[in-house]
Structures are given as structure tokens and as C-alpha cells.
């Protein structure tokens, strides 16, 4: 599919992070196979989402309201979990064991490399001292690890906040040691617990 319309669609869809060339082709096929009315409904739903959903003014979690349900809940503990995306908040909520507040901060390392002003980082630094502890729950990717190091440094130097944690790294349940990467295996050994 190398016609002009497909290439325009492909160029636009490439702006969505994480879409592979194959996924873009599947979306293009889906659009071709659907009736125009069905595509219009999808477009309308996207526009309504864009209009009605915003980021919480405190923590950047996606919400219909100015303050999300976590920030407006005064019964939550005075601890903060910093994550990369709103979907990460949802994942922690599924566990039903974390009862603190959240802060969504994405692309920290990328913004630092590109020297872009990071308003989310500035906001995090300004609220840090309101909490007893902050746990950085970023991905274990290269960028995620460097982001955690950078955030820890900024929290200590700029906000003078010392009580910073990161999630433990370990062997996943059901995984065989032979298939675990070396970094995870090493961290599992270092962070072993007494039985």
C-alpha cells in the first residue's frame, strides 16, 4: 500500500507512540473495511474524549474533573508513587494494596536530553515535601532507569527531599531463572529477603 492517501494516514498514525508498521497497516485495513458511518462514530468518540478528559491539576492523572478521584480523596495515605503514565496508576489500583497518592510524570529523561522545560518535574519538586515518602515506579528500561536516577537527584538537591524509594526488582512469579535477564537476576540477589 503505497498510495498517497495511505502514506498520509501512515504518517499521522506514526505520531502515536508504540504503533508498529504492522499495527498501522491493521488500522488502515480496519478503516477500509468499515462503513463511513462507523468510522465517523469512532472519530466522534475520539473528539468527545479529547474534549471531556483532561489531566488532573495536581498529579497529571487523566480525569473528567479538575481534581482526580485520588487527589480529592482525603482518606488516602500521605505517600506518593511516581509513575510514567495514567495506565500505570490503574495497574497499581488493581492490586488494591497501595493507598497513597500518585503523580504521573512521563518522558523525564527524553525531556532532559532535549533540554525541554518539564512542567511536571517542576510541579513534583514543588509538592515533594508534602509527603512522608516518594516511591519512583518507573519502567526498568534504559530511559526509565536514568529518569529514576535523575528524579532522585533532583528531589534531593532541589527539593531537599531525602525519603525517596524505588520499586524492588526481582524474578517474576512463574519465571525460570535461566530466562531472566542479568540485571534483574543481579538485583534479585542483592535485594534478597530473609525467610
TrEMBL record:
The keyword Thylakoid does not apply. Pfam families: RecR_C, Toprim_4. GO terms for molecular function: DNA binding; zinc ion binding. A zinc finger (C4-type) spans 56-71. It comes from the Bacteria. InterPro entries: DNA_Rcmb_RecR, Rcmb_RecR, TOPRIM_dom. Keywords: DNA damage, DNA recombination, DNA repair, Metal-binding, Zinc, Zinc-finger. Transmembrane segments: none annotated. Residues 78-172 form the Toprim domain. GO terms for biological process: DNA recombination; DNA repair. Belongs to the RecR family. May play a role in DNA repair. It seems to be involved in an RecBC-independent recombinational process of DNA repair. It may act with RecF and RecO. This is Recombination protein RecR. It comes from Mycoplasma struthionis. The gene is recR.
Amino acid at each position: 500500500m503505497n498510495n498517497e492517501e495511505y502514506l498520509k494516514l501512515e504518517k499521522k498514525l506514526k505520531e502515536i507512540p508504540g504503533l508498529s508498521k504492522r499495527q498501522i497497516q491493521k488500522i488502515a485495513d480496519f478503516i477500509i473495511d468499515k462503513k463511513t458511518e462507523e468510522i465517523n462514530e469512532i472519530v466522534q468518540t475520539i473528539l468527545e474524549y479529547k474534549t471531556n478528559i483532561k489531566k488532573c491539576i495536581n498529579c497529571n492523572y487523566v480525569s473528567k474533573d479538575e481534581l482526580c478521584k485520588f487527589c480529592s480523596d482525603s482518606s488516602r495515605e500521605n505517600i506518593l508513587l511516581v509513575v510514567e503514565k495514567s495506565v500505570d496508576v490503574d495497574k497499581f489500583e488493581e492490586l488494591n494494596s497501595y493507598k497513597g497518592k500518585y503523580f504521573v510524570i512521563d518522558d523525564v529523561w527524553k525531556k532532559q536530553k532535549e533540554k525541554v522545560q518539564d512542567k511536571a518535574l517542576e510541579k513534583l519538586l514543588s509538592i515533594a515535601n508534602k509527603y512522608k515518602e516518594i516511591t519512583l515506579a518507573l519502567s526498568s528500561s534504559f530511559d526509565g532507569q536514568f529518569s529514576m536516577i535523575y528524579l532522585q537527584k533532583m528531589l534531593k538537591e532541589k527539593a531537599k527531599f531525602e525519603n525517596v524509594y524505588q520499586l524492588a526488582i526481582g524474578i517474576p512469579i512463574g519465571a525460570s531463572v535461566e530466562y531472566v535477564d542479568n540485571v534483574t537476576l543481579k538485583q534479585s540477589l542483592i535485594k534478597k529477603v530473609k525467610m
